[in-house]
Amino acid sequence: MRPKGLIHFMPKLRWTVTQDAIDLVVIDHRVYDYFKEQLNINSLNQYSVSHLGYATLSQELQESFGKLKNLFREKLRSSIFDFKFDPSNQFDLNHLHRSWVIAHQQYPTVNKLFEPGFLSRINKLIHYIEELTTPFEISTADPYFTMPNIFGTQVLRYGTFNVTVSFNNLGRSSYNKWINGDQVHDTDTNNFNEFYTTLRINTNPSIEQTAPSEYVDWCKRNQMPCVGGIMPLANLDKLEENLLQYRQLFYHNALIENNFITLE
Questions:
Q1: Are 30 and 149 part of one and the same domain?
Q2: Global pTM?
């Protein structure tokens, strides 16, 4: 509980070059403040997107879309792809996919007009980008650095959260053992005994859930600690109304060299 009268600035994800920022709704301020403090003390509060697959594929799709639009105009005198397209916009991805299907319906032999695999590659790119958009990981310069979990397992949760600590620990969590049918509770059972620095970003709606009854029963039968399988830090503020903007921020900032993400 924070004392009344003090100004509380919302925690943020902030990019170092552009100074773009996303407000965070912290799940547990004790955990967030501790995690951020450990990053700062060890000069690790600079995150990079673990891979630029999303940005690279988005650029390829943007270029392919331009080529597709021109080819349909020139070869088929068709305006089916005459619209603005932003690969970071889910509405635009939906529009492109729908138009791609309609084009095949209207022109059943359209593949013969293009180089082999060109049209199918566009469809694959759409789905690849959708799959890569969420979740994805951001990493520090030392992803193997660990800090003790001083809070215990009571801070673990179930469900979907937008910013979570990745499980890079040795062994399996109780929840992961349940998923994979590992019924042996031994020294390899690790329920976030320590926190690694890598974070997972998820732009799906957050959903906090309770333990599945099947999981609870399984833990009892196998004398396994029945605790959550996710270590959440925060959710993205007002995600539903800002989803497009947030995705665009992650996309455009990923294209800028040495543009790190920091926790504030």
A1: yes
A2: 0.77
Q: What is the pLDDT of residues 112-137, one digit of tens each?
A: 888 889 999 999 998 888 776 667 88
Query: Both 144 and 256 in a single domain?
Result: yes
Residue numbers of the domain that contains 119: 53-133
Task: Enter the tokens of residue 200.
Answer: 């997972």
Say if residue 51's pLDDT is above 80.
no
Last-in-domain residue among 83, 108, 133: 133
Q: Report helix, strand or coil for 180.
A: helix
List strands edge to edge, sheet with 261-263: 48-49, 136-139, 199-201, 163-165, 231-236, 21-26, 12-15, 261-263
CB proximity list for 187: less than 8 A, separation 6 or greater: 171
Sign of CA dihedral 76, 79, 85, 87: negative
H helix count then E strand count, the chain: 7, 12
